[in-house]
Design a protein that fits this description.
3-stranded mixed β-sheet, protein serine/threonine kinase activity, elongated, 6-stranded mixed β-sheet, alpha+beta, 9 strands
């Protein structure tokens, strides 16, 4: 959502574990870090290939797992959080963070994640990576920006989902689940309307997170028992037929626009109260023949005996002929604007640093960084007495030479000396990365500048300068909407610091 503190893994036990997994076909080579270049290796359709992520990568992407980045959270029955985040290559991601004890065995977690990560389908919100670091267990998936089926069905603000779109949701779900089954993963845990997500085009996709349990030994269903397959209540085990039953409950959601317990819905159907079952917000704008067909499918899925339920392949085959608006884009039927991000205008007054970055005034940025010196590095290093060696002295001398060259505007020499300091790795300094980032910009190397600014953010996730330097590098790379995004984030962080009584 087994492993290492970073994708390069320097811990001997973790290297051994990674080697074992590689021999079993579980892991890629250790040097395939997902963020090692501006764009990660991608599979068909532009989806990144499955990778290990380091915890520092995901902290940087989610602003240190900020509460502001939470997009989904569950209660005691499903104790996990989902955050949105943004990687160095600007790709949005969803990060599911498990509780520390959910998966005590990192190898088992990695094996299951790699099993799900091999799937790639246009109907899935695909899994693109995972992370194990100490007690942390995380899954990383494609981010879907247009909310869940539950939101659009039960909590809509402007308009309900039209009938043809509901039929599209049902078909896409069936196709996704049939694909998973054909690839040897027929079990989907706790299938419900919250698991159906809408992508940037408004197309419905099934969340990959349901292909893994909430924990190694955890229950597969966290919803109300009234919606749980009867055999699961008897055995506590989810089966492929249990998934079919849950699919039937989602068909009921699509028909009624409400979350109706299956027993109640079946009583209505037996009494032929079909009109009462249908969502009144559709205002009669649906085909009775199509509705009758979907009701029939739902009834079959909800049979008490698992063997009497249809297969997912049969359900997809039955839903396909019901599609009547195949040529209409999903975002139009869903009543949303297609996701085209406009460069946001800064909403806050900019500091001198922010103003210099917005104007791309590298000379002014240089003057500010010189005056700032290293005041924001406080607390980033805790070194033992034993670490104050000759090597440490040489490293600090390299930084001093870099600082001198930086002040004198000898930027290539500054790069060389700062690189010596950074490569030793005994100390970390966001200021050195920010200074080297500016040096790279002045030497017309914006890619390297962006990497340094991102590293400064990794070290100090709430440091506005790191975000400001990213904004300049992104603008140099002609990624202007992302640059404006970063400028806004930096200004917001400065505002928080000022309110907290700290200088910017």
């Amino acid at each position: 959502m087994g492993c290492c503190e970073s994708a390069l893994g320097t811990h001997p036990e973790r290297e051994h574990q990674h080697q074992q997994q590689q021999e079993q076909g579980l892991n890629p080579p250790l040097n395939t870090h997902p963020l090692s270049s501006a764009a990660a290796t991608t599979a068909a359709g532009g989806v990144p290939s499955f990778s290990e992520f380091s915890l520092s990568d995901l902290k940087a992407a989610t602003n240190n797992f900020s509460p502001d980045y939470i997009v989904s959270e569950s209660g005691e029955r499903a104790p996990n959080l989902v955050y949105k985040g943004r990687l160095q290559n600007r790709r949005w991601i969803a990060v599911k963070k498990f509780t520390k004890l959910a998966w005590p065995d990192p190898k088992q977690f990695a094996e299951e994640a790699w099993g799900v990560g091999k799937l790639r389908h246009r109907r899935l919100a695909n899994l693109i990576g995972y992370c194990c670091d100490g007690d942390e267990r995380l899954l990383v998936a494609e981010y879907m920006p247009n909310d869940t089926l539950a939101k659009h069905l039960f909590h809509w603000d402007k308009q309900t989902i039209e009938w043809a779109m509901r039929l599209r949701v049902a078909l896409n779900m069936a196709e996704a689940l049939d694909y998973c089954s054909s690839e040897g993963l027929p079990l989907y845990h706790d299938l419900n309307a919250y698991r159906v997500l809408f992508d940037e085009d408004g197309d419905p996709r099934l969340s990959c997170f349901g292909l893994m349990k909430n924990s190694r030994d955890g229950k597969s269903y966290s919803t109300n028992l009234a919606y749980t397959p009867p055999e699961y209540l008897r055995t506590g085990r989810v089966t492929p037929e249990s998934v079919i039953y849950s699919f039937g409950t989602v068909l009921l959601d699509l028909l009624s626009g409400k979350h109706i317990p299956p027993s109640h819905a079946l009583d209505m159907l037996r009494a032929k109260n079909i009109v009462l079952l249908m969502d009144s917000h559709l205002e009669g704008k649906f085909s009775s023949e199509e509705a009758t067909a979907v009701i029939g499918l739902a009834s079959q899925c909800l049979q008490n005996e698992p063997r009497e339920r249809p297969s997912m392949k049969d359900l997809a085959a039955s839903l396909d002929p019901l599609q009547t608006k195949s040529d209409v884009p999903s975002y139009i039927m869903l009543g949303i604007s297609k996701q085209v991000e406009a460069p946001p205008t800064p909403q806050r007054p900019l500091s001198p640093m922010g103003d210099a970055c917005s104007r791309m005034d590298l000379t002014a940025i240089h003057e500010i960084l010189v005056k700032m010196h290293y005041r924001d590095d406080e607390g980033t290093n805790e070194l033992s007495f034993q670490e104050w060696t000759q090597q440490m002295k040489e490293m600090l001398d390299a930084r001093k030479r870099g600082d001198s060259a930086f002040r004198d505007k000898d930027f290539r020499t500054a790069i060389d000396n700062y690189s010596q300091f950074i490569n030793v790795g005994t100390m970390v300094s966001p200021t050195v990365h920010a200074r080297r980032s500016l040096c790279y910009l002045l030497c017309d190397q914006p890619d390297a500048a962006l990497r340094d600014a991102m590293q400064a953010q990794n070290i100090s996730p709430d440091w506005p300068v790191a975000f400001y330097m990213q904004s300049v590098a992104l603008a140099k790379l002609d990624m202007h909407q992302d640059a404006a995004d970063m400028l806004n984030e930096a200004a917001g962080l400065e505002e928080k610091r000022q309110k907290g009584g700290r200088g910017s």
